[in-house]
């Protein structure tokens, strides 16, 4: 029995690992010279840094949550789970540009004061954090708490929720501009790569209910300590037995036949785990008659602004930023191999970055260096030894109203042919967790097909 997996991003890797573990022969085909897909690292030559002439750079900062159980399971299998620093409790600093005291949202942990049995369950565990959130007035905090509880009643799978935007819903629930900027935007823009006004209500509800209103530890934040290339791609290349890099699949003829390098290749089943534009061009019409609609998922960009300062400027591993073009900042020093060098490598992530995706580096520099100095006082005296920008034009699909209706299920109409990818109907946003879940679902259906069962 053999299965061909097309695409070596996290979805394809997860599917291939699961099938290999089940004793099935897997051939993984990846067009690029490496696995990892949208999560990868590269070397950048530098000349202004002490003791090094190159820097390990990720294509974009990636963040996980404790709620990413499938993704964490994949890292365990690849042997790289230790390469992520996961908070032992949700704790987020929020910086502002005008020297206001730093704000903080932190999950309350009950120690001896309260026995474990009466520690607050989700969503009530968040109320103490919200009650102390200094960027909102007491009245705004009350309204935000009421809206959070109302969000708990939105069904993410309700087709009506897919037709509405979060912005519209927030209007109806008394969330003014300040509450949007200082609370909702912080989480939703980062999680959905979409502005609140443009975000699907259904997906927003999914994220908020899972991360913030669900298990009390679900929102604990994890940040890679290893470069993404080591965490995913290289680890998978070692783990999987049959990986074909630089091998673009040209066509999928049926559930059992591919065309690779001009030659037919037969398998007992096929999983197509490529982005939606590539998938629409690969799978036969008979498999997915609605493949022409997938283009409606479109794309949303992410831009990362990277600065290596000649001294430390950021306390702690990361912080969110409001009232600034800078949305989040991360300390990348150790992951880039610069620990102990005296410099600090800070990356600033801009989600839903339509405004910046085509902006020349010099203009981004003119905007971001002063913006960073506004929120990081130590950066005002520091020099920028390196400054560069990474851009991902197709970072995720556009997770707006109507997107859930366009996402296909894993099973297709052709027996033995399955879809995977963070853009398919996982119920999750376009994230590493969504990608891994899609791969596991496709692998499960594939096994059932090989055992002679139904494909759905
Ligand atoms: C800058 C950036 C920041 C992000 N931040 C986060 C974050 O903080 N947290 C989070 O959870 N997610 C984040 N994401 C999203 C996350 O990276 C993706 O959801 C996930 O990696 C998608 O995985 P995938 O396997 O579905 O697709 P991909 O990673 O796109 O993999 C598809 C693979 O298919 C290959 N391929 C395409 N066509 C062919 C062909 N014909 N033959 C063979 N191979 C082919 C491609 O080369 C690619 O390797 C971010 C994404 C980006 C770009």
Topology readout:
Layout: E1 2-6, H1 10-21, E2 25-29, E3 41-45, E4 54-58, E5 64-65, H2 69-78, E6 84-86, E7 91-95, E8 103-106, H3 127-131, H4 138-151, H5 159-163, H6 166-172, H7 177-192, H8 201-212, E9 221-224, H9 228-239, E10 243-244, E11 249-252, E12 257-260, E13 263-266, E14 269-272, H10 276-282, E15 300-309, E16 318-321, E17 328-331, E18 344-350, H11 361-375, E19 384-396, H12 403-406, E20 417-419, H13 432-450
Parallel strand pairs: 1-2, 1-14, 2-10, 7-16, 14-20
Antiparallel strand pairs: 3-4, 5-9, 6-9, 7-8, 11-12, 12-13, 15-18, 15-19, 16-17, 17-18
The structure holds flavin-adenine dinucleotide.
Flavin-adenine dinucleotide binds at residues 6-12, 29-32, 37-39, 59-60, 62-64, 248-249, 273-275, 278, 282, 302, 392, 395-396, 421-422, 430-435.
